[in-house]
Design brief:
Beta-lactamase; alpha+beta; 594 residues; 5-stranded mixed sheet; Penicillin-binding protein 2a (Domain 2); 5-stranded antiparallel sheet; 2 domains
Length: 594
């Protein structure tokens, strides 16, 4: 009894000593272990289409983390206790007492239960057998390890229910893209840490990301939250970004392009739909594409926004621009006829421009309808190089479009002082100048806007974008009506026609330059057009890269234009325009007959 009372007195004395003399020191140590400053992740802003439909949203998820050192220490300690109890039990054999037998069974049960918990975590997180231990061993000397990133709260809770030491979950947000591959190149993607790395996600990352907050909390020894103490910094959620895209038209454009690229077994394809009244991009798609919701299938070559970053020689879609430049330079007028006889023009000892046949004297609409390289070269040679270069510069060639995308291609337009006779002629029909599809679509907007060049944008506007005059209203309208002949039934772009609407446009077929040689078997085919001609509203540009069949712009790209333009006019409820009379149409077709 005396020994018992003495022990109680010692314990009471120690308790009083701790309470009076060590309270502050122990409280500081406790706060140090349990008081934490934790981050409050910011909710990333949404990316919306022009009608407020979501193109990118963030959903709450859990990331599972642990301290590998403590987890391995727990496992090794349980193994040691089990091995020790097993040795003692086996050494005594049948002479082992009930207590020793129970101790052995308990140690075995604890160790096996822990191993089963690790195996169950592997099953929950879709790991292979033994993968969890391997990852823990590799990070043994680290105090932090991601077990799984961005899992659903339900999966995270299943792992936490295993009650493994120092395994915990933290709040994060995962990006989800409702339109998947059809808008992937425009919207872009974030990395695993929620930072934008492609498309609008990258261009507007600072706006979308917001700012994380901080708060002081109390956690128990297992890292579970017990109490929120105070808010140190308020979390600022990201701001939503509204794009000019119409998700309905975006899907239809992507679908039409993908089908055509597959039919032609082409290397790639791109399409852009732009509103000529505002400069807004209503649709922009590229093939091949990728699904940003499935990172395992992503490949670098699929993630490039070809409409914006790829450069190519435009080919014949440059011819309407050449004609407009010549009219503005006053070296020709809209009613002139160009003599293309004898069907070729020799520019140097080694360079000759040819047409597929001798067209003779051609009116400008007929020149575009038959896509005469000789005619375009003769027109370009009439201009002073400086005049032609200045006109192309005013249209934005050699300059970034600044539509709101990261890494927009500026193209290549050499200074006119470096142009020789061959350069001048080849520029007339689209060679020697590198452009992107976005640049070419922008360059066609003056034909639809009375000579005003619209600044393209991927963001929704409350008022039209900035514009500047680059040609006279008369020149723009004259060339627009010339391009109607391209879509006539006997012309190169007849497959671009849209039932019930007047369409103006131009086909393009350009050889690809590979190892300093133009390949006849590798082609860039294209079509750019405007509708309705009586009140232009849309410009649609299409490129099909290296089709294995239908190797011309009129056969490969024009059907995509027709499909996309028809759907766009229907969705935007644009009324059909009055078709010209049969006699007027016939006269325009026959205008270049020799």
């Amino acid at each position: 009894m005396g020994v018992l009372l003495f022990g109680i007195a010692v314990l009471l004395g120690k308790a009083i000593y701790i309470e009076i003399y060590q309270q502050d020191d122990l409280q500081k140590k406790s706060d140090k272990r349990q008081n934490r400053i934790v981050s409050i992740p910011a909710y990333r802003g949404m990316i919306l289409d022009r009608n407020g439909e979501a193109l990118a949203i963030s959903t709450p998820v859990k990331t599972i983390i642990c301290d590998p050192k403590k987890l391995l220490h727990k496992r090794e300690r349980l193994r040691e206790l089990f091995e020790k109890a097993r040795r003692e039990y086996e050494a005594k054999g049948k002479y082992a007492s009930t207590v020793e037998k129970d101790a052995y069974q308990l140690a075995k049960l604890n160790f096996m239960a822990f191993e089963d918990s690790l195996s169950e975590v592997e099953d929950i997180l879709d790991m292979q057998a033994g993968e969890l231990i391997d990852r823990l061993e590799k990070s043994r000397n680290k105090g932090f390890l991601y077990l799984a990133r961005q899992k659903s709260p339900e999966i995270a809770q299943q792992v936490l229910d295993m009650e493994l030491p120092n395994v915990r979950a933290k709040q994060e947000y995962k990006r989800f893209y409702p339109m998947a591959e059809s808008a992937a190149h425009v919207v872009g993607i974030t990395n695993i840490d929620g930072k934008g790395v492609e498309g609008i996600e990258r261009a507007k990352n600072d706006v979308l990301a917001g700012k994380s907050g901080k708060k002081r909390v109390i956690k128990d020894g297992r890292g579970k939250l017990i109490e929120n103490i105070e808010l140190l910094e308020k979390m600022q959620p990201g701001v939503d970004v509204s794009l000019s895209l119409d998700r309905r038209l975006q899907y239809l454009a992507y679908k039409a392009l993908k089908i055509r690229v597959f039919e032609l077994d082409a290397e790639s394809g791109s399409v852009i739909v732009m509103d000529t009244k505002t400069g807004e991009i209503l649709a922009m798609a590229s093939v091949p594409s990728y699904n940003p919701n499935n990172r395992r299938t992503m490949r670098a070559y699929k993630m490039r926004n070809r409409s914006v970053v790829d450069m190519y020689e435009a080919g014949s879609i440059m011819k309407p621009i050449t004609i407009a430049a010549a009219i503005e330079s006053r070296v020709i007028d809209a009613n002139v006829k160009i003599d293309t006889s004898p069907g070729y023009i020799k520019l140097s000892q080694r360079y000759t421009v040819r047409d597929r046949t001798n067209f003779g004297k051609m009116s400008l609409p007929y020149l575009l309808a038959k896509s005469s390289n000789v005619g375009a070269s003769r027109i370009a040679l009439l201009m002073e190089p400086r005049q032609h270069w200045m006109f192309l510069s005013r249209l934005g060639f050699g300059q970034e479009p600044n539509a709101g995308f990261p890494a927009e291609a500026a193209g290549v337009l050499q200074n006119y002082v470096k142009w020789g006779r061959v350069d001048i002629a080849s520029h007339g029909y689209g060679y020697g100048i590198a452009v992107s599809l976005l640049q070419m679509v922008r360059a066609y907007t003056p034909f639809a806007a009375d000579g005003m060049l619209r600044s393209p944008t991927i963001y929704k506007l409350t008022k039209p974008s900035l514009s500047r005059p680059v040609m006279s209203k008369k020149t723009a309208n004259d060339v627009l009506h010339m391009m109607e002949a391209v879509v006539a039934s006997n012309a190169t772009g007849k497959l671009a026609a849209v039932n019930g609407y007047r369409v103006a446009g131009k086909t393009g077929t350009a050889r690809k330059l590979i190892n300093r040689k133009y390949r006849t078997d590798k082609l860039i085919t294209s079509f750019i057009g405007i509708a309705p001609v009586s009140n232009p509203r849309l410009v649609v540009g299409v490129i099909i890269d290296d089709p294995k069949y239908d190797k011309s712009g009129g056969k490969a790209a024009a059907p995509v234009f027709s499909k996309v333009m028809a759907e766009a006019l229907r969705l935007l409820d644009i009324a059909p325009d009055k078709l010209p009379s049969d006699s007027k149409l016939a006269a325009s077709k026959a205008g270049g007959a020799t």
